[in-house]
Design goal:
This protein is α+β, with helices and mostly antiparallel strands and 299 residues long. Helices cover 39% and strands 19% of the residues. The longest helix has 19 residues.
Length: 299
């Protein structure tokens, strides 16, 4: 019988200057019997942001003309918009979250307390989809949850390199070969948020089975499973998104291929590349579905 284990590690409050590797190793020793060969260590980006000082005091920012203009249209706070602009390569488009939610028939399927949910969405007002480190992120990955008022964390830059450094340090300290995945939460599913891999090291990112034969010998379109995202999603079942206090998960028992590659080797976009993708999708859809499709999409 095949099985894997997910072991959630509770950590103390992480502050700037803390050694995240020491905190993780101490927690793993006390709560999971230590680190073992082939463990996959899944770490939320937020605790790394805190430890490495990737935090912003929003109220100290001075909004630019662009930030004030975007804030006026979206209803968001100008200083928060400025923080997004400062920490992204480009803003691609805006999603009026609060407006869409307030027009919805009910938030019962999204929250146990719809009024609290609507109040939380009002604080967000609008989400800006951005490019950061070549990856799509909502609001440049800024996160103010579980921070004091006026403070937000920014995901660490170059997460693949950070995952590699953490992996190497843990391997040097323990003598065990492991893999590391750094995760963040994004709203990429119609049913809710998902934890995604933002950086990885020591594990092959995807399954590379695209085009292999199915049960009937036909080359299949599927088979390109994002292994690191599947691990991130499974780990989030223990991490949660509110007050669980489990920022690190050890996945134990998975058979995987080792690799020095990272997430950015597959899914990194430049601004021109992202625009080209959107342009090609719209152009092909217009040709296939007609001009009326485009007009319905816009109006």
């Amino acid at each position: 019988m095949k099985k894997i284990e997910l072991l959630g590690l509770k950590l103390p409050e992480v502050n700037t200057g803390d050694d995240p590797v020491k905190l993780i190793l101490d927690a793993s020793g006390n709560q999971a019997g230590g680190i073992s060969d082939d463990d996959v260590l899944v770490i939320t980006s937020k605790i790394l942001s805190k430890a490495l000082g990737y935090t912003i005091e929003i109220e100290k920012l001075i909004p630019s003309k662009q930030a004030r203009r975007i804030a006026e249209v979206t209803g968001a706070k100008p200083r928060f918009i400025q923080a997004i602009l400062d920490n992204s390569e480009e803003v691609l488009f805006a999603i009026p979250v609060y407006k869409l939610a307030s027009r919805a028939e009910s938030l019962d399927k999204a929250a146990r307390d719809p009024e609290k949910a609507l109040a939380a969405l009002k604080n967000t007002s609008c989400e800006l989809i951005t490019l950061r480190d070549g990856l799509f992120s909502a609001n440049a990955g800024l996160d103010s949850s579980n921070h004091p008022a006026g403070i937000a964390s920014v995901p660490p830059s170059k997460p693949d390199e950070l995952a590699r450094r953490i992996r190497k340090e843990i391997e040097d300290r323990t003598g065990h070969r492991i893999a590391v995945i750094i995760t963040d939460t994004e709203w990429i599913s119609p049913t809710g948020t998902l934890d995604c891999a933002r950086g990885s090291s020591g594990i092959q990112v995807n399954s590379r089975k695209l085009g292999e034969a199915d049960l009937y010998g036909k080359p299949k379109y599927g088979g390109l499973d994002s292994i690191v995202d599947e691990i991130a999603g499974a780990s989030a079942l223990l991490m949660g998104q509110t007050s669980e206090g489990i920022p690190v998960v050890i996945l134990r028992g998975l058979e995987y291929k080792r690799s020095e590659e990272g997430v950015a080797d597959y899914f990194q976009f430049k601004s021109k590349g992202a625009r080209r993708i959107v342009r090609e999708v719209i152009k092909t859809s217009r040709k296939a579905l007609g001009l009326r499709w485009l007009l319905r999409l816009v109006f």
